[in-house]
Records
---
Amino acid sequence: MNTQTLYQKTLLFAAKKHTSVSQVLSGSELPYIVHLSNVAMEILIASQHSKEFDVNFAIQVALLHDTIEDTETTFEEIEANFNTEIAEAVLALTKNETIEKSKKMIDSLTRIKKLRKEVWAIKLADRITNLQSPPNHWDTEKIQNYYKEAILISETLSGSNEYLENRLKYKIEEYIKYLVISH
């Protein structure tokens, strides 16, 4: 299957799943699929700047990366509709709700690092697209924690994808203004 067909098939699956739970972008009325499409766009561009990058695998995981975490979708459903490797990647990108909040990101990053570099790239792309103007309901502490988490992601996944690593560093530098504004 070509990249466009895989993209369309996966986008439809993800859109149905996120729409079924009425998920929108935080602080907006935009459908959540906008975020997933932005992550996939980062992956498409990164693939053009990266050697030995499996864009077909990465696009599917990028579009599915929040389905287990934010919808009723199960690992088994992703495995049946896509494949085991994609389901494992989506699961690694999913925060484990059974552990305490302060350890969720480290746990996810540890699981991500056991998989191929495209999964690392998706986590970088996810944070790049999330480093926008914080929602109005976020307090100063939430903004600071999000900033610190972005640095943790950048440092932990260093060596995965130079293009996305540089993009994330730039977005982190830009995000500093929200730390100043929130005071």
---
Amino acid sequence: MQAVNRSRFIRRALLCVGSLAAMSATLGTGVAHAQSAQQGEIVIPDDVKIFGNDNPNVRRATAVVNGDVITGTDVDQRLALIVAANQGKIDEEEMKRLRLQVLRNLIDETLQIQEAKAADIEVSQAEVDQSYARVASQNFGQNTGAMDAYLKRVGSSADSLKRQIRGELSWQRLLQRNVQPFINVSDDEVNEMLERMKAMKGTAEYRLGEIYLSAVPEARQQVYENATKIVQQLRQGGSFVAYARQYSEATTAAVGGDLGWVRLAQLPNELSAVARDMEPGQLVGPIEVPGGFDILYLIDKRQVLTADPRDAVLALKQISLPFPKGISEAEAGKRAEAFATAMKAAKGCGDVDKVASGLGAQVVTNDQVKARDLPGQVQSAVLQLSPGETLPPFGSLDEGVRILMLCGRDDPQVNDGPSFEQLQAQLEDDRINKRAQTYLRDLRRDAVIEYN
């Protein structure tokens, strides 16, 4: 597999809640899941009567999965990560539902680790520690000690996160060995897709986040209510990435629900109709789709094979002038207006430092600013500037007043779209994910699970 294919596969397949069993006979993988079980219709009478007082929805926080124990501590520590991601803003009812979801996730994770082990796939402790250190690097400046302390402070542990890492790596390698080699995308298919993309030049492409919850017909109302509560939590400031990782049953769960860049034609009709009218930052759902419900979040939007002005690299100078402590809002407004007037005397970026020095202002230069990284209201305005022009002053009573001057702009090149290899990798990923979706269902079906 080419390097680009391998890296893309690893990124997309971290938590592919798998589907090898459905192919064991044809792939020769040795997976011991029988495929001969007859598929019959489950009949539930309308006037169903429950015998006894047992509530199947009430589960204690411990379980034994094929002999491996999941403890209440395991659930509590994994749950603590979700609570921390939402700044603790979770009510009691939601917490109960989260606990059940975490238990289900841990059961799935245990099944994945067991299946990889049965296939003689091992993940060393050194590899787990390396991935853990990478997470620490991204969030705590390469300080694993700070990461350990944070996890302990929020009620979790390094062991809990490392177990999740082990599960993801084990599952990824199992899919790499037993699924990927049997996926084939022909050159003709790739070329046909490339031609189709060229024909669609200028049409919209959407970068979407998704949270997918499956639902059998008799549980649709309950799943819908659960999805509605997730949407409410997200609108109250919950982390979409955190919720996607813990709740979503789609294979994109491992990457926080990120679908990547897609076109409307690639989406189910129910989702394309909704995504068409969404704006970046908008959350919509739950949306009923075949097999369950989807929650969509539009991360960004762009035009196919068209240069996006927001990808321009800007050279900017920021001129800052502090306010005296205790200044009133009215006085701050006057000073900001006077500051802006004085800065108009600067003849381009070459003259800014001299003028700013005379005003007692500080100048910061950055010639590698991506327009899309700027706040929305600043982004659109700065893209309208010519070199040497400035934005209106902005700031606060505490931070003082600031002015941005555009010194230069490197416009993006026309986007030629994915290469042949990149598109082939994407199509392979899609097929891997589709086959992967039935694997975990088979593992669940055959598992011996005892709730304590």
---
Amino acid sequence: MKNIRAGVIGVGYLGRFHAQKYAAMDGVELVGVADIDPRQGQRVAEECRCTYYDDHQALLQEVDAVSIVVPTSLHHRIASDCIVAGVDILLEKPMTVTLAEADDLIARCAEKNLVLQVGHLERFNPAIVALEPYLSLPVFIESNRLSTFKNRGVDVDVVLDLMIHDIDIILNIIQSPLQSIHTAGAPVVTATTDIANARLIFENGATANVTASRISRTNVRKMRIFQPGSYINVDFAQRKFMTITLTDELLESGMPRQDIHVHSFAAGDALRSEIEHFIGHVRNRTRPLVSGHEGRRALEVALQVMAQIREHKDLEVFRKVSEVFGKQ
């Protein structure tokens, strides 16, 4: 089996982990890493026993596939360089800044038969994978992704930083066109939105209530899924989910008896699974689970949420929302 020659462009906090996964993977040769910070780039190169490049263009001449882990504003330009060089792409989320940029990358990768995978890491979360057999026809989903403040990823607002993960998951679970969006959000610590809520209503009648915050006191990652005859409660942090299914047996009260099961799942390594998935599609020349089309779909909804929040002019509403989220 021929080794896939891989590289990483951008080896800051997350990019360093990408490099580590490639370096430890069978059938993959981590050729090098590129970063504008020589000290960080050389540090990661030494750690992963590969070459440091101060120019990503030079790296692209030596590899078959790369992870792009740079600020979102640079995604389109660097991915374009990869396309010109004929290199397959794992592009961190959010895919691009605009839909026009996303469309351009999708079309050009298709034209050159290049693999384009978008880094929606949560699709490879062991909990999400374990959930699939229990999903039937979700009619209501409530999602909470709350995080303490970290001075990282603040070049984009909380919708693109955190909420887009759950938007992608929900769009994959509810297979129906989106009908309408209702939002609230506010900046609190940064100049962009730090807390946001979106109610997504789909054409098939399903609804999702999505909350994201990066200024909470604790980290919370939970999702509740309601569907006819059953309910699923997922706690990503505790690595478990509970399923409640109504049976045909009636209790004295007239209510159906509930069949309750608690399922635990292994910690897993979602990033390794994501990169292995990417390499598999690079090797087989097939479309990945989260291709450019799925990345664009999540981006489109996220941008609609952001646009609607920006249109809100009632500062009193913003203050009330801030008070509510700030206590969580």
---
Amino acid sequence: MARANRGFTLLELLVVLSIVALATVGVSFAIRDSGATELQREGERLAVLLETARAQSRASGTAVRWRATEQGFVFEGLPHLKLPERWLLNGTRTNGPAQLWLGPEPIISAQQVWLVNESYPDRTIRIGTDGVRAFTAEAMQ
């Protein structure tokens, strides 16, 4: 006796839906908001540069100041260490105080600076320290 073809079983439908859900999750992770990612990367880069200058300031006993400029930024007080002075992402600038003191004391005052970009006006990255811990970059919404 031959069975009539009646369609898909519930198990087959669940397997297909699971595969589609996994594929959707994979695609959503692959297609990230490049603006958020690029500006976050810029903030993390600045945090690393600030920590590098802070360590050099403590090692040399020289006062170091970071300040934003029209073209990017500059580290003042580090004659022997050449650090980058330009943003990687065009249109990046600071919002708020545009200078930070990085030493030579091991404990500095709590400081922060905000990065914004004209291409992503709804994004802000805060780079800051409480004076004891390292500079960190975090997205502000």
